[in-house]
Sequence to fold (258 residues):
Amino acid sequence: MAGVVEPLVLPDIEQDQQSDVRSDLAPGFLVICWDDPVNLMDYVTHVFQVVFGWPKTKAEHHMLQVHHQGRSVLTRESLERAEHYVHQLQKYGLQATMERD
Amino acid sequence: MKLLRSTGGGFGFQFERRERRLLLGILQLYPLIPASYHRLSKTADPEQVAADQKLLDEALAAQKVENQRRLLAMLNAPGRFKPEADGYELTLSADQVDWFLQILNDVRVGSWLKLGCPDPSKEPPADPTAENVHYYVAMEFCGTVQSLLLHALDTPA
Fold:
């Protein structure tokens, strides 16, 4: 039995392709809010609370990210949901875009 | 201007006569943010998102037409500005406050764009001229009213 060799399992070179298919099906768009020095900080917090239904602490966290880092990734969504959120944020006058993840 | 009261159903704000006049004049600037200001994406090929961008532009334009209609209706509603000894009392529901914030922010951001996007933290941002001084006034006044409305939303009934 010593001569028995376990079959060698080679790396699945098609795995990346499968991942791509999965990521196409999953939500794949980042909704980003960009800094605009003219928007009041409290206003941006208010908009995040209204649009996403977030508690004030979470809305403030993202507002501060926008303020200090120039942008904040607010959520990752499907194409349709991301478009919806971008429209809502722009309706309030914020600079928001959706970028493919 | 100040918050007079916050109840479960809404808010009462006091405006002096000159403040009301200024507010009504500034609101005539709405809408001020140009459609080109809002982009769907910063990284996507513009040709690939052209159709979606067009839909977004149309949705925002329709929204602004509806806002203009609603703004006129709101300001002309009987009793909206109730005369008082010291000026006027403006009454707004919580939903109206949220919506009014959008209008004021459009005029504030639009004025800022008209002024060439100065950094508001720097004093003075730039020398006002006869041509643009009204945008400075609009930007500052809208910010003051926005702060009042946001304070009201945070004030328990």
Notes: The helical segments of chain A are 15-25, 41-52, 56-69, 79-91. Residues 11-23 of chain A have pLDDT under 50 and may be disordered. Chain A touches chain B through 23 residues (CB under 8 Å). The radius of gyration of chain A is 21 Å.
